[in-house]
């Protein structure tokens, strides 16, 4: 077996603020850690965008020949979980495990690949206690009445990822009365137990971990003291990732991660989505209205680092685009079904689009550019099926086959076009029929009327039926395979 050399990939590193060549510590093998959800509510579409972005990063690295170990954690011990559990009257652990399952359902519904490891905080207390102890022993952390804090002043390069200045950060910050910490910027590694909260044994008494320490402990366990790519949403840079760096690098004396990748924000028609504003769109609510692949297409149509604006119109556009892709694939699949075009040359350069796709993705996972290359590919498919520039049918067939194979390759990277074209289009039509209140029996009746009129060469009558259907929001397509129909795009 020949060994494939992974292709060179450049990625933007938030640490250096530059694009860098990916050079994993172990050539060919990439360790990826992505900060996962805090499991106290359903994830929203902003979270879904972040996880989809890293889903595609991992898929693409594998496509390019890298062996990837993908770790995405669950924060199942947290203030927010405890608060939510008090509201529902559940045990925090029970509430968290319920939302772990909901997250898994959501991730599956959005066609995300499973991480290789999905560790939970509640199952890693020994590792967490061990790293806190190391930080205490090395003088980076101190105990105070059962709490343990990280001493930010003890870490010379604190805030190197966000490039913030410690004195600026401290402006206006005071240690509040009742606080156990020495300096306002110090953050909790361990919190002493309070009644009604989950707690574990530790050298500092019963308590539970602070938020940031879990990622230091779990990334070390599954990827080592230094690993390749650390990812998350933009708003995790400060303080979460900064604190992870402070903890891990102070404990081990080496870099936590070589490359830091951050996914941009998603807003709602220009407004920041936030729980306090009450304008949060949950992923599962979005998936009631829009197809999962169309939502992925919408996310991927903008580079992962850029802001993305969510609106019903943007979703409708994404779904219309997916419909175009699937209509093309249905046509091509019909054309290719059961035929053998033999070996021989192809027309033009069908594989150039895959080359363009890879070029875009090699450049910091530019999925927007990659989708642009796909437009070219689907354009060529349409040209070859609708008005082939050459008469040689086997030549056209071989070219379509080459293009269809490349779509399958791309499909595995983007998590798009994984469905059967006919099934996808039917599902979309059924949803549109429900939303627009279209009477399918009536549509079928009018279609057979039209077929009869055409058979009787009464084209005026056939055209009248087409016009009637159009008024009802139904569009008909006559193809080699017969007449099919779809719901026309909504007006306005
Ligand atoms: Zn984290």
Automatic annotation (TrEMBL):
Residue positions binding Zn(2+): 35, 215, 240, 244
Nucleotide-binding is among the record's keywords: yes
UniProt-annotated binding residues for ATP: 275
Cellular component per GO, a single term: cytosol
Alphabetical UniProt keywords: Aminoacyl-tRNA synthetase, ATP-binding, Cytoplasm, Ligase, Metal-binding, Nucleotide-binding, Protein biosynthesis, Zinc
EC number(s) from the headed UniProt entry: 6.1.1.16
Ranges in coiled-coil conformation: none
Motif ('KMSKS' region): 272-276
The record's free-text note on cofactor binding: Binds 1 zinc ion per subunit.
Pfam families xref list: CysS_C (PF23493), DALR_2 (PF09190), tRNA-synt_1e (PF01406)
Single annotated GO MF: ATP binding
SUPFAM superfamilies reported for this sequence: Anticodon-binding domain of a subclass of class I aminoacyl-tRNA synthetases (SSF47323), Nucleotidylyl transferase (SSF52374)
Motif 'HIGH' region positions after renumbering to this chain: 37-47
GO biological process: cysteinyl-tRNA aminoacylation
Catalytic activity: tRNA(Cys) + L-cysteine + ATP = L-cysteinyl-tRNA(Cys) + AMP + diphosphate
Cofactor: Zn(2+)
Span of domain Cysteinyl-tRNA synthetase class Ia DALR: 356-425
Subcellular location: Cytoplasm
SUBUNIT field: Monomer.
PANTHER family listed in its UniProt record: CYSTEINE--TRNA LIGASE, CYTOPLASMIC, CYSTEINYL-TRNA SYNTHETASE
Membership in a protein family: Belongs to the class-I aminoacyl-tRNA synthetase family.
UniProt name for this protein: Cysteine--tRNA ligase
Organism: Myxococcus stipitatus (strain DSM 14675 / JCM 12634 / Mx s8)
Primary gene name: cysS
């Amino acid at each position: 077996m020949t060994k494939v050399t992974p292709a060179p990939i450049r990625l933007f590193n938030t640490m250096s603020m530059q694009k860098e060549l990916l050079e994993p510590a172990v050539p060919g093998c990439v360790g990826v850690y992505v900060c996962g959800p805090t499991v106290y509510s359903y994830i929203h579409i902003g979270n879904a965008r972040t996880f989809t972005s890293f889903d595609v990063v991992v898929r693409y690295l594998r496509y390019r020949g890298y062996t990837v170990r993908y770790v995405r954690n669950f924060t199942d011990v947290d203030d927010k979980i405890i608060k939510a559990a008090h509201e529902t009257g559940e045990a925090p652990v029970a509430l968290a495990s319920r939302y772990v399952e909901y997250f898994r359902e959501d991730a599956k519904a959005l066609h995300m690949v499973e991480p290789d490891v999905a560790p939970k905080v509640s199952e890693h207390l020994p590792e967490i206690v061990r790293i806190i102890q190391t930080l205490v022993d090395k003088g980076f952390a101190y105990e105070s009445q059962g709490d343990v804090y990280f001493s930010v002043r003890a870490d010379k390069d604190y805030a190197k990822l966000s490039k913030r200045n410690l004195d600026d950060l401290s402006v206006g910050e005071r240690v509040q009365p009742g606080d156990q910490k020495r300096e306002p910027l110090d953050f909790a590694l361990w919190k002493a137990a309070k009644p009604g909260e989950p707690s574990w044994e530790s050298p500092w008494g019963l308590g539970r971990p602070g938020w940031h320490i879990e990622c230091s402990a779990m990334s070390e366990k599954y990827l080592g003291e230094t690993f390749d790519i650390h990812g998350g949403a933009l708003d995790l840079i400060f303080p979460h990732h900064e604190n992870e760096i402070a903890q891990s690098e102070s404990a081990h004396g080496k870099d936590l991660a070589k490359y830091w990748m951050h996914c941009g924000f998603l807003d709602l028609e220009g407004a920041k989505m936030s729980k306090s504003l009450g304008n949060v769109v949950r992923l599962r609510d979005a998936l009631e209205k829009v197809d999962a692949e169309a939502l992925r297409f919408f996310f991927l149509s903008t580079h992962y680092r850029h802001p993305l604006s969510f609106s019903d119109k943007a979703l409708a556009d994404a779904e219309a685009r997916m419909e175009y892709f699937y209509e093309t694939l249905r046509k091509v699949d019909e054309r290719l079904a059961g035929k053998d075009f033999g070996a021989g040359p192809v027309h033009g350069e069908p594989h150039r689009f895959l080359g363009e796709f890879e070029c875009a993705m090699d450049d910091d996972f530019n999925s927007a550019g990659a989708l642009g290359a796909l437009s070219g590919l689907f354009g060529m498919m349409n040209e070859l099926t609708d008005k082939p520039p050459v008469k040689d049918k086997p030549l056209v067939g071989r070219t379509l086959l080459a293009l269809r194979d490349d779509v399958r390759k791309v499909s595995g990277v983007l998590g798009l076009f994984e469905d059967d074209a006919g099934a996808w289009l039917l599902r979309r039509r059924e949803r549109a029929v429900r939303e627009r209140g279209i009477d399918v029996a009536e549509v079928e009746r009018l279609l057979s009327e039209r077929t009869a009129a055409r058979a009787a060469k009464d084209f005026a009558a056939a055209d009248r039926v087409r016009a009637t259907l159009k008024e009802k929001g139904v569009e008909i397509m006559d193809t080699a395979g017969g007449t099919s129909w779809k719901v026309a795009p909504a007006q306005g």
